[in-house]
Amino acid sequence: MSHLTFRSRFAKSFLSEDVLAKEIAKAKSAKDTLYSKKGKGSEYLGWLHLPSSIGNEEITRIRDAAERIQAQSQYLVIVGIGGSYLGAKAVIDALTNPFSVFEENKKGVKILYAGHHLDADYHARLLAFLENRDFSVNVISKSGTTTEPAIAFRMLLSLLERKYGKEEMKKRVYSTTDSSKGALKKLSDDYSFSTFVIPDDVGGRFSVLTPVGLLPIAAAGRPIAQLLDGAKAMESELQENSDPNSNIALQYAAHRNAIYQQGKKIEILVNYNPALQYVTEWWKQLFGESEGKEKKGIFPAGVNFTTDLHSMGQYIQDGERHIFETVLTVASPKTDIFLTERPDDLDGLNYLSGKKLSEVNGFANLGTLVAHADGAVPCLEIEMPSISEFCLGHLLYFFEVACGISGYMLDVNPFDQPGVEDYKNNMFALLGKKGYEEKRKQIELKLK
Question: Which of 78, 160, 150, 89 is nearest to 118 (CA)?
């Protein structure tokens, strides 16, 4: 049985039974296509059975590498962009006490990130910060030539060699890359870096349960076995459950597409816990890169409530009616606070005395759901029991399957990303890369 709960109570009034039934039938057909591996992009379905197929030997290698990193370094710099870092960051941030930066003797290294943008200030400050600190690097790239991480890795490699010397530097670089080809694979072999493989049949945005995500998560001191157990339980649940009325991935995909058919083009993923902010960022890439093709697809956006109710709340309540929400909540916080009375009651909050802060947050959520639905914003709900390794594994795998189903419902290839090459080609031309001379001339004409 799923540890996630899906509700559509605040979307039902927007959908006729006929429309929803049609989309549920399409979702069931799309699920069959996904699991038969006969649809578009089926060569990239290695993630589908990854939780149950990853071997103990691989898990042991990852744990051993994580322990070496912890023994030799204060910090691990993750070099990657998109799916090469978002899944790991989503899990690590969700499970990390935000105030642990002030704690000593914390298990696991502190994780830093590079190569996920090209900002000079950030990277200069990162290099200056690492100058007098012990660190290792986990570079993640199938090719090794993606501009943002390749530049960052080049700078970090120079710093490592200057600080530690060539031989010691080799022991501090962990490479996650292609099994047999690419610039990073060749460099890793030439320098004898510790190397992990990104499976050929797993795309970046679906790679969190490969060494791409598992090594950083383990190095941060988190038990990856529990994360995989949660994903494995969801894998079994979604594959074995053929009932379209209770398979939650099928239900979520059907409802979001039924709402899309009503003209709601933007889906906002809402969370009420700041620890889940990067789960939202991971989700945005997963759905945006998978569905946004052939002039189709729901645009994925995200907000953090109740914070963004004081900035984006007005637009969501009263703005253009082209949006719907999926609200992600946590049933039980790790810790809670009971509110108490004050004799002066100047802030008028004594009526909350004896209530838990989580209860206040819960009613803020419910009140917002009612208000937004009244304001013509359909709202779906996904509730997870708690923020734990198991529940995060459950949640991430659920979204992956739902995304595959939803992409096939749109009749696009959910597993490629041809559009991301356009900006790269323009950038290469403008920077003077060999072979892009004609492209540069075309751009210069447009700039006149």
Answer: 150
